[in-house]
Design brief:
- By secondary structure, this protein is of the alpha+beta class.
- 34% of the residues lie in helices and 25% in strands.
- Strands 1-2-3-4-6-5 form a six-stranded antiparallel sheet.
- The longest helix is centred in the last third of the chain and has 22 residues.
C-alpha cells in the first residue's frame, strides 16, 4: 500500500534517477497486497506485518539499490530465494542487494523485481 509519507518524500527528492526509483517502488508494491511502506534510513522501505524486508538505498545520488533483509532483529539461518535472473548479490546469509543504477535498468527489471520480492516475502515470513 502506497503512503502519503513516501509520496511526499519522493516529490521532494532530488536524485538523478528519480524515474527509476518510482518505477522500482511500483514494482515492489505490486508484489503483495500486504506490503506497507514508510521512510526508513532516508529512503523508502517496504514490509509485511510490521517488519521491514526490502529497503531502497539511494546514495550516491546517481545510483540506487534495493536491499533485501530480514528486519532489524538478528535472525538465525540462511535465506534461500528463487532468483532465476541472478539479481541478488549476497552480503551475508540473510541479506542481499540488487544494484539497479539507472532508470532504464529499473524499468527493464520491474517484472523480475516484483517476482523477487514475492519470493523474498515467502522465504522470510
Amino acid at each position: 500500500m502506497s503512503t502519503a509519507e513516501v509520496d511526499a518524500y519522493l516529490d521532494s527528492l532530488v536524485h538523478a534517477e528519480l524515474a527509476g526509483i518510482r518505477s522500482l517502488r511500483s514494482a515492489v508494491l505490486a508484489a503483495d497486497d500486504r506490503i506497507v511502506e514508510r521512510i526508513k534510513w532516508n529512503a523508502p522501505s517496504f514490509g509485511v506485518g510490521g517488519d521491514d524486508l526490502v529497503t531502497m538505498r539511494l546514495a550516491p545520488r546517481d545510483a540506487f539499490q534495493l536491499v533485501f533483509h530480514r528486519g532489524v532483529a538478528k535472525q538465525a539461518g540462511a535465506v534461500t530465494v528463487d532468483d532465476p535472473a541472478g539479481l541478488l548479490a549476497w552480503r551475508s546469509v540473510d541479506r542481499a542487494v540488487v544494484d539497479i543504477r539507472t532508470s532504464a535498468r529499473a524499468a527493464e527489471l520491474a517484472p523480475a523485481i516484483t517476482a523477487l520480492v514475492r519470493a523474498w516475502i515467502a522465504a522470510v515470513s
